[in-house]
Design goal:
The chain is of the alpha/beta class and 377 residues long. It has helices at residues 31-36, 61-68, 87-96, 107-115, 161-179, 181-196, 199-202, 219-232, 255-279, 347-359, 364-367, and strands at residues 9-15, 25-26, 48-49, 55-56, 72-79, 125-128, 144-146, 239-243, 286-292, 311-316, 323-325, 345-346. The radius of gyration is 20 Å and the shape is globular. The termini are close together.
Length: 377
């Protein structure tokens, strides 16, 4: 557990859709990269070099700055055994730590339960975005899910309690086919209305905030700003989550233009988030995890890339020991997994490291096992 006077806080940014690992952390020193990628490729002279072998996409300048300052760790080749190319299944595995069955508890929901077992603070966990990620769904654990801080929450425009309950019942039926009627109804019955209690509290955060940092107008930037606002408001929130717009990183076609925009916006949002915390002397107890559900295929499809494996994730913060961790997956033909990068770091190792070395909780019951921890904390 790192020594910090304030309670450690974890922020999670999910890059929905499966980010292209090879064009994000580019293996520009490996000629096989240019053999495999004929069209969807980053020219070697544009790569933001890290160590002579790999470097960042040229649109990741703010993240390169954090790396150079020693506050950004790159965990390479992250994945899990017998990878799935399904968005829903792969994300479900990341969210529940259950690679072999459908899980009914989110890993971060379990964390929130550990941190606040009596559910005394309805704002221990907060999500910014539409719906509620499976990572945060655990029966009996209320999590506030916020569209934005001015128009808070799920169905809060319905003042009448009976009408809201009926609306929540309809809402539950939408999700029942995916994860079963029982878990959905149990979750809503125990936690749905509890989560709504945070509305009045959260809505005060923007009025308590001022900053010289000018965030971008894109969704990720605005949600990262909301996260800083919530953190600075001192509500005792320990887990904050947001997601890049639905499947935005799913770049089957037109990837070069899309990836340029995505990483320009995302890297700026992360840089602004970090700078905002620094401006308020509020970053010492904050760690940011950036992940995606899988990488893309090694060979491009002409204008984009299809679902693959072996992605990367990033961990950012004042207490992070920056650098490269894990092994970049081999690009040799005979070491590919049916045309995919083989994963070299189990994602549960990343989780375990954050949980035990940063959040101070026992990782084993949360990630469903014991996994090697890394040295970025």
């Amino acid at each position: 557990m790192t020594s910090t006077k304030k309670d450690p806080v974890l922020v999670v940014l999910q890059l929905a859709g499966g980010n292209d690992a090879m064009n994000t952390v580019v293996p520009h020193g490996n000629p096989r990269y240019y053999d495999h990628r004929k069209n969807v490729v980053v020219p070697q002279d544009q790569v933001l070099d890290l160590n002579g072998e790999v470097g960042f996409n040229p649109n990741m300048g703010p993240m390169k700055k954090l790396y150079d300052e020693g506050n950004l760790a790159v965990i390479q080749g992250v994945g899990y055994p017998t990878g799935s190319r399904s968005h829903f299944r792969s994300m479900d595995i990341w969210h529940t730590c259950e690679p072999t069955k459908v899980g009914d508890e989110g890993w971060l929901g379990r964390v929130i339960r550990d941190l606040d077992p009596q559910g005394e603070n309805v704002l221990t966990g907060v999500n910014f975005g539409r719906g509620l990620p499976r990572a945060l769904v655990t029966p009996g654990v209320p999590v506030a899910s916020v569209g934005n801080l001015e128009t808070y929450g799920v169905l809060t425009g319905i003042d009448d309690v009976d009408q809201r309950l009926k609306a929540l019942d309809v809402f539950s039926k939408v999700y029942s086919p995916m994860i079963g009627t029982g878990p959905v109804m149990d979750y809503l019955a125990q936690t749905g209305l509890d989560a709504l209690k945070g509305a009045d509290i959260l809505s005060a955060a923007p009025d308590m905030y001022s900053s010289s940092v000018e965030y971008g107008s894109d969704t990720v930037s605005q949600y990262m700003r909301n996260i800083v606002q919530t953190h600075l408001a001192g509500f005792g929130t320990r887990v904050l989550y947001t997601t890049a717009p639905f499947n935005s990183f799913d770049t089957h076609a037109g990837q070069m233009a899309a990836h340029t925009r995505l990483w320009s916006e995302t890297s700026r949002a992360i840089g602004d988030f970090y700078d905002d915390l620094q401006e308020h002397n509020a970053g010492e107890n904050v760690m940011l995890l950036v992940f995606t559900e899988f990488g893309r295929r090694v060979k491009d499809n002409g204008s984009g890339t299809d679902h693959g494996a072996g992605g990367h994730c990033f961990v950012i913060g004042d207490q992070v020991k920056g650098g490269l961790y894990g092994e970049y997956p081999s690009l040799e033909e005979n070491k590919l997994d049916e045309g995919d990068l083989q994963f070299s770091t189990d994602f549960r190792s990343v989780y375990s490291t954050i949980l035990e070395k940063w959040m101070g909780v026992d990782a084993k019951p949360i990630v469903n096992g014991e996994f090697e921890q890394l040295a970025f904390v």
